[in-house]
Design brief:
By secondary structure, the chain is an alpha/beta fold. The protein is built from five helices and seven strands. The strands form three sheets. A three-stranded parallel sheet has the order 2-1-3, with helices on one face. The protein has a two-stranded antiparallel sheet with strand order 4-7. A two-stranded antiparallel ribbon has the order 5-6. Strand 1, helix 2 and strand 2 form a beta-alpha-beta unit. The radius of gyration is 17 Å and the shape is globular. It starts with a helix and ends in a 5-residue tail after the last helix.
């Protein structure tokens, strides 16, 4: 959850989020107001989502998505799901598009659980946010921007996703 604030502070991007977020109190309103792209996790919607991605990318929008497909405690990296990379292989984008992976590493405040900043599983958003805001010292966050990768350097979305995942893992303390 903090990733959104951290990454948006550095770059003007449009986030990609699961459709359910659009209905969340306050966060949903904020996401809609900032042009978030909402996607369904239903595999039957993959074609429509690919088209939506293509349209936004062709209009020059920089989309930021989390290819793990879910949040974690911040202490590990889950395998990247290649589905969202399909749009980059369309005829209009394949030879023009570049993707830049970003590794975000959170360092908990002294004496706190290393998972302090993480929001995952069935954790309630409100109490988690209040805990973060009430902390006298919030620790720190490290953001690593990896070199952009040409889409057409990869034969398909799976190899592209694997390459980007390896970049992210290379800069994360949990590693490979």
């Amino acid at each position: 959850m903090l990733d959104i604030f951290v990454l948006n502070a550095r770059r003007n991007v449009y986030f990609v989020s699961k459709a359910e977020v659009a209905n969340w109190p306050f966060i949903g309103w904020l996401a809609r107001a900032t042009g978030t792209v909402f996607i369904s996790r239903d595999p039957r919607a993959a074609g429509d989502q690919k088209q939506l991605f293509e349209e936004r990318l062709l209009h020059g929008h920089r989309l930021l998505f989390f290819p793990e497909g879910t949040s974690t405690d911040g202490q590990r990296i889950l395998p990247f799901k290649p589905t969202l990379f399909a749009a980059f292989f369309s005829d209009g984008l394949r030879h023009e598009a570049r993707i830049q992976a970003v590794t975000v590493v959170y360092h908990a405040p002294g004496g706190e659980d290393p998972r302090f900043h993480g929001w995952w599983g069935d954790m309630d958003f409100g109490p988690h946010l209040l805990k973060l805001l009430a902390a006298p010292r919030g620790g720190r966050v490290e953001v690593v921007y990896h070199p952009p990768v040409r889409v057409d350097d990869h034969p398909n979305r799976k190899t592209l996703a694997a390459h980007l995942e390896a970049q992210v893992r290379s800069a994360h303390p949990a590693g490979g």
